[in-house]
Design a protein that fits this description.
- The structure holds 2 protein chains of 2 kinds.
- By secondary structure, chain A is mainly beta.
- Helix content of chain A is 0%, strand content 50%.
- In chain A, the strands form 3 sheets. In chain A, strands 2, 5, 6, 10, 11 and 12 form a 6-stranded mixed β-sheet that branches.
- By secondary structure, chain B is an all-beta fold.
- Chain B is globular.
- In chain B, the strands form 2 sheets. In chain B, strands 2, 4, 5, 6, 9, 10 and 11 form a 7-stranded mixed β-sheet that branches.
- Chain B is 0% helix and 57% strand.
- Chain B has no helices and 11 strands.
- Classes of the chains: A mainly beta, B mainly beta.
Chain lengths: 113, 113
């Protein structure tokens, strides 16, 4: 079956540090890939997505590139802020009804001032 | 507008109570979802509605009863819950199509005593 693996953390960084959160996936077919962010006490917010190989999703300074050859979708940001402290979920979707909308375990990020 | 609203934000109930969670979206989405999220875990899919019809039930106990009265509303009726049902309940919606993005509400935090 489909699966998503990501570093679980917690990841602790100082403000303005470079961030990488690794995400790799296993899927049949050609999934779309997503990063969602969950701030404390809130629901999930879509951060970015990519629908085909070599696509780059970007939003709020975050970027991730769909790498089919390495089945990866690593999240990066050049300079993190305290306000980026949250849990980040990598996810994939292969079809239209959500039963294959598979989440990774989540990575908790703490950014210190 | 990509907003999904959920009420109530918090709910405390006894094991003999009956309560309902409500979810609403006005994005014209025809697929709606209920997820359960335990602390430090990713969301787990419970139910999927497509065109107001239940299309996926992930073997959820019958003490959880979903209802989709129209294309904008999704309810989750709760009865005779157990303490282990305490969790964050998330609603999401999407277009019906291939690999559509799911948009999440802020969730209802449920505590069963």
């Amino acid at each position: 079956g489909n699966s998503v693996t990501q570093m679980e953390g917690p990841v602790t960084l100082s403000e303005e540090a470079f961030l990488t959160i690794n995400c790799t996936y296993t899927a049949t077919g050609y999934p779309s890939l997503f990063w969602y962010v969950q701030y404390p006490g809130e629901g999930l917010q879509l951060l970015l997505k990519a629908t085909k190989a070599d696509d780059k999703g970007s939003n709020k300074g975050f970027e991730a590139t769909y790498r089919k050859e390495t089945t990866s979708f690593h999240l990066e940001k050049g300079s993190v802020q305290v306000s980026d402290s949250a849990v980040y979920f990598c996810a994939l979707s292969e079809d239209n009804y959500g039963q294959n909308f598979v989440f990774g375990p989540g990575t908790r990020l703490s950014v210190l001032p | 507008d990509t907003e999904v609203t959920q009420t109530p934000k918090h709910l405390v109930m006894g094991m003999t109570n009956k309560k309902s969670l409500k979810c609403e979206q006005h994005m014209g989405h025809r697929a709606m979802y209920w997820y359960k999220q335990k602390a430090k875990k990713p969301p787990e899919l419970m139910f999927v509605y497509s065109y107001e019809k239940l299309s996926i039930n992930e073997s959820v106990p019958s003490r959880f009863s979903p209802e989709c009265p129209n294309s904008s509303l999704l309810n989750l009726h709760l009865h005779a819950l157990q303490p282990e049902d305490s969790a964050l309940y998330l609603c999401a919606s999407s277009q019906v199509g291939v690999q559509e993005t799911q948009y999440f509400g802020p969730g209802t935090r449920l505590l069963v005593l």
